[in-house]
Design brief:
The chain is 77% helix and 0% strand. The chain is mainly α.
């Protein structure tokens, strides 16, 4: 049986199962195992299932074992734990509180503080959806209470939550680095400037929104006590220190990303107990949540590894590469086509699912064109970030919708998102046109 046909049928089967709401891990693993069995059974020309059992089980279990025992994968539970512990210790919310005090007199200051809070949370947790969920509970209800436009109060947090995909550390960068065998440390550093660009763009959207419609963000009518700004800034030092340890340590070559994660977990626990904001019960609860979230990510990643091995067996990636080469597409046309594919998938699938489903096909293509995989990784993560707020199924939008309940309709959140989405597209175009934005910092590291 032709391998390319089997591979293409497998992709169709996975998409069909996902449309039926089958979990991504089970869809990938079941289709890969079935497809590999068919390939091995027809290897001699006739259908001989008894000869397919051993090679199929070997493909499934060896790839599952190799992925789960990957050293780089160990940083995922560490960074997930860091996020939960830092939240319980009130380290992540301190950035928001500091920004709120400093920007309270600026038009739209609370919305801007929310974006800063999301950036600070992202710099510790690495998860966009977790960022939107956590910061949404803190920021959106407060802005609604202050009389902010419902669209601004929700869309600013939904968009700000996407910064977790770019600003290091990022779970998506870790998974991308593992599957493409690129340096995760360099990927983390490559996301800094694009993340800052996105942050500045979101702040500009809020500024222009409030300037054109002052009623969208009521002016602050209270007054600050003397020393409030200083105290708020000082309270944010733990979050700043953790970010410096991660970025400074990796950039300076003092330790790897995994070592940085372990050190920061220890630092967060120590600070939490010393400040008496973290309890034993809170730590246990954080570790329990970490175990659940990590198990989910590991299962998806391991299933994806099996699927990648199956796709390599079919040769479909080489077939598509040859077809693209024969079509003589320009580098710009190829990247544009990839962007369209990811934006369309982003409307319906979660970021991890999109990545593990598409990387087996995309990486051989971009390598044949000589693209820098670090730069391409930033482009992919930015596309996935945009997918989190793209209608009709922007995950971050629905997360915020669940947080605010019936007080704000989903269509109102999407209406506000469109302004932030335009900035995201602009940043994406800049990253595509000027790869140095992504490669400048990692190329200068030790």
């Amino acid at each position: 049986m032709d391998g390319t046909t089997v591979g293409l049928c497998a992709f169709g089967a996975v998409l069909g199962l996902l449309a039926l709401r089958v979990p991504i891990a089970f869809a990938l693993a079941s289709v890969a195992a079935t497809g590999a069995f068919v390939m091995f059974a027809f290897r001699t020309g006739s259908f001989t299932p008894e000869r397919a059992i051993n090679p199929t089980t070997s493909l499934v279990f060896s790839n599952f074992y190799d992925l789960v025992h990957s050293y780089d994968l160990s940083m995922i539970p560490l960074f997930v734990a860091l996020g939960h512990i830092a939240y319980r210790a009130e380290i992540t919310t301190a950035i928001y509180q500091a920004a709120r005090v400093w920007l309270v007199k600026v038009p739209g200051g609370v919305a801007m503080a929310s974006v800063f809070g999301c950036a600070g949370f992202s710099a510790i947790t690495g998860s966009s959806i977790a960022c939107a969920s956590t910061m949404g509970r803190i920021c959106s209800p407060e802005m609604l209470r202050l009389g902010y436009d419902k669209r601004l109060a929700t869309a600013s947090v939904a968009a700000g939550g996407t910064l977790g995909s770019l600003i290091p550390p990022s779970v998506l960068f870790i998974i991308y680095g593992i599957f493409t065998e690129t340096s995760i440390s360099k990927l983390f550093l490559a996301g800094i400037l694009p993340g800052i660009l996105s942050l500045v763009g979101f702040l500009l959207v809020i500024y222009l929104w409030v300037r054109s419609d002052p009623s969208a963000a009521p002016a602050f009518d209270g007054k600050l006590e003397r020393g409030d700004r200083r105290r708020a800034a000082l309270a944010a030092w733990p979050a700043c220190m953790i970010f410096v340890i991660i970025v400074g340590g990796i950039y300076g070559g003092f330790f790897t990303a995994t070592e940085a994660a372990a050190i920061c977990v220890a630092v967060a626990i120590t600070i939490g107990f010393l400040q008496r904001k973290l309890t034993i019960q809170g730590l246990i609860h954080s570790l329990r949540e970490t175990a659940i979230q990590t198990a989910s990510i590991f299962l998806i990643a391991a299933s994806a590894k099996i699927f990648v091995a199956f796709i390599a067996l079919t040769g479909v990636a080489n077939g598509i590469g040859e077809a693209v080469t024969a079509a003589n597409l320009s580098p710009f046309a190829l990247i544009a086509a990839i962007a369209v594919i990811y934006l369309l998938l982003g409307m319906f699938l979660d970021p991890i699912g999109i990545m593990v489903l598409t990387l087996p096909l995309m990486i051989p293509l971009v390598e044949s064109y000589g693209f820098d995989l670090i730069w391409f990784g930033v482009v992919i993560i930015k596309l996935l970030e945009i997918g989190l707020i793209t209608p009709p199924v922007g995950l971050n939008v629905f997360v915020i919708g669940n947080v605010v309940g019936k007080s704000v309709r989903i269509d109102q959140i999407f209406a506000g998102i469109m302004r932030f989405l335009s900035v995201d597209v602009l940043v994406l175009l800049l990253i595509m046109a000027f790869p140095i934005i992504s490669t400048l910092i990692p190329n200068t590291m030790r």
